[in-house]
Specification:
The chain is mainly alpha-helical. It has a single domain (about 1-215), classed as Fumarate Reductase Cytochrome B subunit, CATH 1.20.950. It has eight helices and two strands, in the order βαααααααβα. It has helices spanning about 10-30, 35-60, 65-70, 75-80, 95-115, 135-165, 175-180, 195-215, and strands spanning about 1-5, 180-185. The radius of gyration is 19 Å and the shape is elongated. Pfam families: Ni_hydr_CYTB. One of its GO terms (molecular function) is heme binding. Keywords: Cell membrane, Membrane, Transmembrane, Transmembrane helix. It is found in: Cell membrane.
């Protein structure tokens, strides 16, 4: 048994920053008042994180690339126990499906929030709400109600991590902190993206946020 690098720093920072940001978004929305100003600002951070992760999923390290780990057709073989985990050191097929589902749900939540109208104080409309002639109230209702599904997905994710830890004796939390995973057998050959790719992905994320800011009314 040895430890090998599985998750690079950008993936780990993205994971924990997004988790903290979503927790804050829930808190600020529930608290309301002037906290909604920060709800909008952190929403921009979440948008930047998503754009960065999408870029990293295309250009980034092997274990972060969607084309390398998103294999829904392999779920059957994974459930039957015939899936070759030695050839896939990152997400298993079920974990990959959860990652994509969570990213899609957060993206939808952000998009509806950008166009949502503030029906309470009329002070904290989504940044792109001014681009709508009407429909902001509909976006707000969708934004509020869809959060229940997002929370359900997050809860399933946490439950799955605990299930693997308690019943399958697989620690999925520590590797997402340290980047290292205990590995038995041949060490897989993994490519990790360099600083140039990181800067490029960061630049695209910053450009997306700047565009949202420029389009606000």
């Amino acid at each position: 048994m040895q430890k090998i690098k599985i998750w690079d720093l950008p993936v780990r920072v993205f994971h924990w920053t997004l988790a903290a940001a979503l927790a804050f978004m829930w808190f600020s929305a529930k608290t309301g008042g002037s906290w909604m100003a920060w709800h909008l600002r952190v929403g921009l951070l979440v948008a930047a994180l998503l754009v960065f992760r999408l870029c990293w999923g295309i250009w980034g390290s092997d274990t972060a690339r969607f084309a390398r780990f998103f294999r829904p057709l392999q779920i059957g073989s994974y459930l039957r126990g015939t899936w070759d985990k030695q050839a896939h050191p990152g997400h298993n097929p079920l974990g990959a499906l959860m990652v994509v589902a969570l990213l899609a749900a957060v993206l939808f939540q952000v998009l509806t929030g950008l166009f949502a109208a503030d029906e309470n104080t009329f002070l904290y409309h989504g940044y792109l709400n001014g681009r709508l002639e009407n429909g902001g109230e509909t976006f707000r209702r969708i934004h509020v109600n869809f959060f229940n599904l997002l929370a359900l997905l997050a809860g399933l994710h946490i439950a799955a991590v605990l299930f693997y830890r308690l019943f399958k004796k697989q620690d999925l939390i520590t590797p997402m902190i340290t980047g290292l995973k205990e590995w038995q057998g041949n060490v897989p050959s993994l490519r990790f993206a360099g600083i140039g790719v990181f800067v490029a992905a960061l630049a695209v994320a910053a450009a997306a946020v700047c565009l949202i800011w420029l389009l606000r009314k």
